[in-house]
Amino acid sequence: MALRGLRPRIISFSLYWLLGTIVILAGYLLFIAPHPHPDFSMPDLLLGISYSLIYAELAAIGLLATVRSERSENQLSEEIKKFRKFAKEIEEGPKGVDEDTSKNLTRLGESIADSIDDEPASGIKDLDERLTTWVDEFEEETDFIGRKQKVKSDEFSDITDDLYTFV
Fold first, then answer.
1. How many domains does the chain contain in total?
2. What's the pLDDT tens digit per position in 86-135?
3. For burial by CB atoms within 10 Å, which of 71, 81, 103, 150 has the most?
4. Does residue 65 come out as left (phi exceeding 0), alpha (psi in the -120 to 50 range) or beta?
5. In a domain, 90, yes or no
C-alpha cells in the first residue's frame, strides 16, 4: 500500500484513529460498563485513551513493516533468480550471449546488493559488500573469457550460495 498522496495519508490516519476508537469502545462495553466501578476522573480517561491509541498505532506499524518486508523479499527473490539465470547464460558460453546479458547481470547485482544492504536482518555478514566488489570486478573484465572466469570462480559460487538463503 503506497501512501504517496495527501488523501491516502488522511484516509490511513482516519482509519487507524477509528480502529483505536473502536478498540476503546469495545473494551469499555465489554469490561467496564457491565460491572460496578468507581468513578473515573478525566485524567484516568485520557490516560486510557492514550494507551489504547498508542497500542493501535504500534500494531499498525508492525503490520506495515511485515507487509513491506514480504513485498521486498518477493522482489529480491525474483531478482536473485534472474541474476543466476544471466550468470548461467554467461557460464554456458558465448552463443546467445550479448552485451545486454552482462549489463543486466551487473545491474541486478547492484540492485540485489542495495536490497540486502537495506535489509536489517539479512543474517549474512558483508554479503552486499562482497557482491558489490564482485560486480565491480566483473565490469572491469573486458572480454567474454574473463567474465566467464569470474562467473565460474569460487568467490561467485560462495556469493550465490549465500544469496539462495533469500530465495
1. 1
2. 888 888 877 766 777 788 888 988 888 887 776 655 556 688 888 888 88
3. 150
4. alpha
5. yes
